[in-house]
Specification:
By secondary structure, the chain is an alpha/beta fold. The chain folds into two domains: 103 residues, Rossmann fold, CATH 3.40.50.720; 97 residues. β1, α1 and β2 form a beta-alpha-beta unit. The longest helix has 39 residues.
Length: 245
């Protein structure tokens, strides 16, 4: 009689396999040894003299484990799942171990299982109410959440925030320009006095102009906002390499 060692066995596995283990001359066709433990290198020795090893998704079927199984007399690995990413197929082929699995499940296996399905539907304008009524009539347990209004509100809030930020930036720039113009106008009389003195001392028009340009280059008044959000005036003296607050 063929012997099979089943790992990661649950009570429902015992019931289903025992119920179908027949056609063996009025007796069981397979001698099944159930092991609740997970298959790995330490538990692989439980399968000694087992012709078939039945494993599940969390069992370790790496090359090391397969070598222990092959040395113990196993010739077939039966996966009671459709996935086979937990088995080293190259090592199984090298050790001449046959590998079988569940190719597919019946849709009825999970037909009555509770589940949730979320979907987004983009409807033409004016069709929302009729579509919702038809959907709820066909699927009464469906929960419909209209997100068009929420998205519109979020878009409006973001637009208002962007407008407010732009307005605040524009105010700061305009205030800086106004202060700069005021500083230039306030120093007009001083510049005129300096120009008259230089001309009296014999300076040429070009020298007077160069002196004025040097003043603009060295002394720059700007407007800035400090870390507390307060509007402050800052003087940058570029020629001296210092910044005075």
């Amino acid at each position: 009689m063929t012997t099979m060692a089943m790992f990661s066995a649950k009570p429902y596995d015992r019931r289903s396999f025992d119920a179908t283990n027949g056609d063996g001359s009025n007796g069981p066709a397979l001698q099944i040894r159930y092991h609740e433990s997970r298959l790995d290198r330490a538990t692989a020795t439980y399968a000694v003299d087992a012709d078939v090893v039945c494993a599940f998704v969390n069992d370790d079927l790496s090359a090391d484990v397969l070598e222990v199984l092959a040395a113990s007399g196993t010739r077939c690995i039966a996966l009671r799942c459709s996935g086979f990413n937990n088995i080293d197929l190259e090592a199984a082929e090298r050790l001449e171990l046959s590998v079988v699995r569940v190719p597919s499940y019946s849709p009825n296996a999970v037909a009555d299982a509770p589940h949730n399905l979320a979907a987004t539907i983009d409807l033409p304008a004016g069709r929302e109410s009729a579509t919702m009524r038809a959907l709820l009539a066909e699927f009464p347990s469906t929960s419909v959440v209209e997100v068009k209004g929420v998205i519109g509100q979020v878009r409006t809030i973001v637009t208002q925030m962007a407008t407010a930020i732009t307005a605040a930036t524009a105010v700061a720039v305009l205030a800086g320009i106004a202060v700069l113009i005021g500083a230039i106008a306030a120093a007009r009389d001083v510049r005129m006095y300096d120009a008259i003195v230089l001309r009296t001392l014999g300076a040429t028009r070009a020298l007077v102009g160069a002196n004025q340009l040097q003043r603009y280059r060295v002394r720059i008044d700007v407007i800035a906002i400090d870390g507390h959000g307060r509007l402050v005036r800052r003087r940058d003296v570029l020629a001296g390499g210092t910044i005075g607050a």
